[in-house]
Specification:
Helix content is 33%, strand content 21%. By secondary structure, it is of the alpha/beta class. The chain has a single domain (37-146), classed as Glutaredoxin (3-Layer(aba) Sandwich), CATH 3.40.30.10. The protein is globular. The protein starts with 12 loop residues before the first strand and ends with a helix. It comes from Halosegnis rubeus. One of its GO terms (cellular component) is cytoplasm.
Length: 147
């Protein structure tokens, strides 16, 4: 798994709209991996990132959610929950593997990476805590890193 100081990986995936996305990670960026659309903890986490999205954007921080679900599932999930940030579809696990995550079970663990420019600057493992509050914690700490 990537850790603090590791180089940002080059990734490319389709978002919930079927558009190709290749983040450059030039500005502070949060990439959070979650196991599956429409599951309890994943829905809480996505909704909290959405609720905090205006503050992320005001702070110049981009948010991407990534799971091994396909674009159709992401589109349905985003529509049902009003998610305005990009959900990257990673059905073959190449994005997860670029971050060093295990995909052997057909899903990824709940892990979050903060990138700034060319490198990973922070990682979070919210499996140690309730997904509720995770988006706020990441926002506060990412803002502090940017100062």
């Amino acid at each position: 798994m990537l850790t603090v100081g590791d180089a940002a990986p080059e990734i490319r995936a389709k978002n919930q709209h079927g558009e190709d996305v290749a983040p450059a990670f030039e500005e502070p960026t949060v990439v959070y991996f979650y196991p599956k659309d429409f599951t309890g903890g994943c829905t809480i986490e996505a909704n909290e990132f959405q609720d905090a999205l205006p503050e992320y954007r005001d702070s110049g921080i981009t948010v991407y959610g990534v799971s091994m679900d396909d674009t159709e599932s992401h589109a349905d999930f985003a529509e049902e929950h009003g998610l305005e940030f990009e959900l990257l579809a990673d059905p073959d696990g190449t994005v997860a593997e670029a971050f060093g995550l295990d995909t052997s079970e057909g899903y990824t663990e709940r892990l979050t990476f903060v990138l700034n420019g060319e490198e990973v600057v922070a990682t979070y493992d919210p499996e140690m805590a309730d997904p509720a509050g995770h988006a706020r914690e990441v926002l506060d700490e990412t803002r502090a890193l940017a100062e």
